[in-house]
Amino acid sequence: MNVEGGLQITDLWGVARRRGKLVALTALLVFLASYWLAMALPNVYTSYATVLVEPQAVDEELVRAGVKSSDINARLHLMTAEILSRPRLSRIIDEFKLYQEESEYMLRDEVIDLMRSRIRVQPVVPELEQGNRRRELEINEFQLFFDDYDSQMAMNVAQRLANDFIQSHIEARVKVSQKSLEFIQDELDRLAERIRVVEADIAKVKNENPGKLPEDFAANQRRLERALGDLSLAQRVLTEAISDEAFYKSQLASASLGATNDETSPARRLELLKLQLAEFQSRGFTEKHPDMVKTRAEIEALEATVAALENSEGDEAHGGSLLFQQTQAQARRATLRRQAAEEEIARLKGLALQIETLLGATPAVAEQLDGLNREYEHLFGSFQDFSNRYLEASVQAQLERRQLGEQFRVLEAAFEAFEPSAPNRLLILILGLLFGCAVGAGVGLLMEATDTSAHDARQLQSRLQLPVLASIPRIWLESDRIALRNKRLREAAATASLVGFALVGGAVSYLWVNGMPGFVAAVFSGESAPAPTSPPPPVASQAEG
User: Fold this and answer.
1) How many CB atoms lie within 10 A of CB 318?
2) 209-265 pLDDT, tens per residue?
3) Cis check: omega of the bond before 214, within 30 degrees of 0
4) pTM
5) Interatomic CA distance for residues 320 and 326, integer angstroms
6) H/E element holding 187?
7) Across 1-140, where does the E strand assignment appear?
8) Are 241 and 334 in contact (CB under 8 A)?
9) Helix ranges restricted to H, 402-477
C-alpha cells in the first residue's frame, strides 16, 4: 500500500478486497483454535455445603459458655487453618483416592497445595446486613466450597470437609473448656499448698512468741498497770515496815542501854543509821544509791554486833521484862514485813520488766503476723474465687461435652452440581473471536504494509512521477468467471471442511476429556439422556447425634 500520496477511501476498499480473505481466514483459525481449546478444557464442578452457627441450647443467664461466641470470626480462621492442615487433607486424599495421576509426577506437598487451592470457605452475609458497612458484621453462616473434575467427588469431599469442620469445632470447644478446667484445678492446688505453708508460718510465729502476740497486747498492758500499782503499794508497805523496824529497834536499843547517852555505843550508832536510812528512802533514794548501799552495809555490821551483845547480856539483864519482849517481837515482825516487802518489790519489778519486754516485742511480731495474715487473706480470697470459677468451669465443660453450647450444624448438605462451574466456554469463544479479528486485522495490515506493488493508476503515477494517460479495466471472460466460481466453491468447501473438522474435533475432545458415558450410551442405544437428579435434602451432621 502506497501511503506517500495520501490515504483515500478507495484505498480502504482495495485493502479490504485484496486482504479480506487472509483476514477472515486468520480470524477463523484463531476462533477455531479457541473453540478447540474451550472444548478440550476439562469441566470443573463446584459443590458446597452450608454450615450454620447455632447459639447454645441452655439459657445464657443460667450457664455462661466457656468459649465466647464473639470470637466466631477468629475461631473460623483457626478452624479453617486446621481443616486445611497437611495431615487432614492427606487423609482425605487417601480416603477418596484423589489426584492419582498428579501423584505420579508431583510431590505429596504439591498435591496437598493443589487441593488447598480448590477449597474455599466463604461467609454468607445476611441480606439485611449487606448494605450496612458501619459496623462489623457477625457471621452466623458460611459455605465450604470444593472444586473437582468429578461432580460426585466434589459433593463427597465438600460434605466431608463440612463434617470435619463441625467435628473440629466440637473438639476445639471441648479442648478449651477442659484446658480451662485443668488450669483452674492446678491453680487451686497451688493456692491450697501455699495456704498450708502460710498457716504453718503463722502457727510457728505464734508458738515462738507467747505473750508477744497482738491479741496479748491489751492484757499485757492491764498486767503492767496492776504490777505498777502493786509495786507502788509494796513500796509504801516497805517504807512503813522500815519505819516500824527502826522505831522498835530504837526502843530495844534504849531499853538495853538504859539511860546512858553514849553516842559511841553500837546500839546508839545503829539507831542513828536506821534513822538516816529512813531519811534516804523518804528522799527517794534507790537501793543502788551509794549512800544507801554504804548505810545498809554498816547497819548489817552493827546489827550483828548488837545481836551478839543482846545474846550475852540482854537475857540476864532483861530476861524477865515483859515490855522488852513485846518490843522485841514487834521489831521482828517489822523486820519480816520489810523483808517480805523487799521481796515483793523485787518480784514486781521483775514482772514489770518482763511485761515491758513483751510489750516492746509485740510490734515486731505484729508486723510479721500482719504480713502473713495479709498474704493468707489474699490467698484465701483467690482460693475462694478460683473455687467458684472451678464450679463454673465444671458446668461449662459438662455443657460442651453434652454439646449444648454453641454448635455448627449443616444447614444445607453438599449436592452434586448439574452444570460445570468452569471453564466459561462462552467467554472463551467471545474472547477468541475478538482476538481472532484483531490478529486477522493485524496480519492484513502487515501484509499490505509490506506490499510494494501498485494497484491503481494513482499509485502508479505517484510511484513513477509520470502522468498516466489511460487505465484499461480488467476484462472478464466467461472462462474467467467459471474459474473464479470454481475457485470460490473450492474455498468454501475447504472452509466448511475446516470448520466441520474443528467442530467435530472439539466435540470429540470434549467427550474424550470430560467423558459422558450416559450421553454416549444413550446415543448408541437410541434412548434419551437421563435427566439430572435433584439435590439431596439437607441432613444433620455427624456431630449433632
Assistant:
1) 17
2) 888 888 888 888 898 899 888 888 888 888 888 887 788 777 776 665 553 444 556
3) no
4) 0.53
5) 11
6) helix 151-208
7) 45-54, 119-123
8) yes
9) 425-449, 457-464
